[in-house]
Write a structure and sequence with these properties.
Elements (H helix, E strand, L loop, with lengths): L2 E9 L2 H17 L3 E6 L14 E6 L2 H8 L2 H10 L3 E9 L1
Antiparallel strand pairs: 1-3, 1-4, 2-3
Helix pairs in contact: 1-3
Length: 94
């Protein structure tokens, strides 16, 4: 069963964040991740929509996601993005 990863973003330094995102995408795909959506909520059918930008990715399973997240390559990218964005991360197992 696939695993989904929802991240919500509070961008502090847009230029630095965009540089990070450009470098992160090919690495995420190398580890088997697939981008499903990125942007802002278009609305809500009930309650409050998520107000900050978000990214939704799909993985074969949770282990594939954690392999990417804990990889040496991604750790250096996470260090690079420090100060540019605050991230809240949610893993959804289906």
């Amino acid at each position: 069963m696939p695993t989904y990863h929802l991240t919500t973003l509070r961008i502090i330094d847009r230029e630095k964040f965009l540089e990070y995102a450009t470098k992160a995408r090919p690495l995420l795909e190398q580890y088997g991740g697939e981008y499903l959506a990125a942007g802002r909520a278009a609305g809500s059918l009930e309650g409050e929509a998520i107000a900050t930008p978000l990214v939704l990715t799909k993985w074969a399973n949770t282990q594939a996601l954690t392999n990417f997240w804990n990889s040496e390559e991604y750790q250096s990218l996470r260090d690079y993005r420090s100060g540019a964005v605050l991230v809240d991360s949610t893993i959804i197992e289906s």
